[in-house]
Design goal:
- The protein is of the alpha+beta class and 196 residues long.
- It has two domains: 6-81, Nucleic acid-binding proteins (OB fold (Dihydrolipoamide Acetyltransferase, E2P), Beta Barrel); 86-192, no CATH class.
- The protein has helices at residues 82-85, 90-106, 114-126, 132-149, 169-176, 179-192, and strands at 6-18, 24-30, 34-40, 58-67, 70-81.
- A five-stranded mixed β-barrel has the order 1-2-3-5-4.
- β2 (24-30) and β3 form a beta hairpin.
């Protein structure tokens, strides 16, 4: 995984901020490391090859190098930008933005969860294929899966697929019946985390 202080891993860009002149501090939730804050030199400048790959909601394969002062993002391939993919579906853009906001608020430090990463990745991967009604349910189940993966919920409360990371049409359709329960579970978890 980590070779010569370099790692290439699947990741989701969950946030970003300025870092000096033209550079950016990028918050990635990675498949192997959990939450990583990486520095991307000149990422805010037009000439940057990484710029398009480091927008919030982008996901793909990222190369990170561990330096004395932290991680540097040095490359990316096979990325998708959720915002642009969903340009015709503003309700889906809002849904992924809310999910990423929950991840930013609940995950601190390099805490890795295979279930959290899988739920987040598969949600973003499948989001363009969902109808408006299914987007809402998929958003709720994703947040419920995130709070479950982080330990804010210790029981599935009889909700099927909560431990799963799949988002096929049958799974989402089955969960329509449990939407109120999902929302109740999410609200209880957010209350326990002191975010409400």
């Amino acid at each position: 995984m980590l070779k010569n202080n370099e790692v290439t891993t699947r990741a989701v860009v969950i946030g970003r901020g300025q870092a000096g002149e033209g550079s950016a501090r990028i918050f990635l939730y990675t498949e192997h490391l959990g939450l990583v804050t990486g520095f991307a030199k000149s990422a805010r400048e037009e000439r940057s090859k990484l710029r398009a790959h480091l927008q919030v909601g982008s996901f793909g394969l990222y190369t990170l190098v561990k330096g004395k002062t932290g991680w540097r993002i040095t490359g990316s391939v096979d990325t998708k930008n959720t915002h642009f993919t969903l340009s015709e579906k503003d309700y889906a853009q809002k849904a992924y933005a809310r999910v990423l906001s929950v991840v930013r608020q609940l995950v601190h430090g390099e805490e890795y969860s295979e279930q959290l990463f899988g739920a987040l990745w598969n949600f973003l991967e499948n989001l363009p294929d969902f109808s408006k009604g299914h987007v809402r349910v998929a958003e709720h189940v994703t947040v419920a899966r995130i709070v479950y993966a982080l330990g804010y919920v210790d029981d599935t409360h009889g909700i099927p697929y909560l431990e799963s990371i799949e988002y096929d049409t049958k799974t989402v359709e089955d969960l329509v019946f449990y939407e109120r329960q999902l929302i109740k579970t999410i609200n209880e978890a957010l209350l326990a985390s002191n975010l409400t």
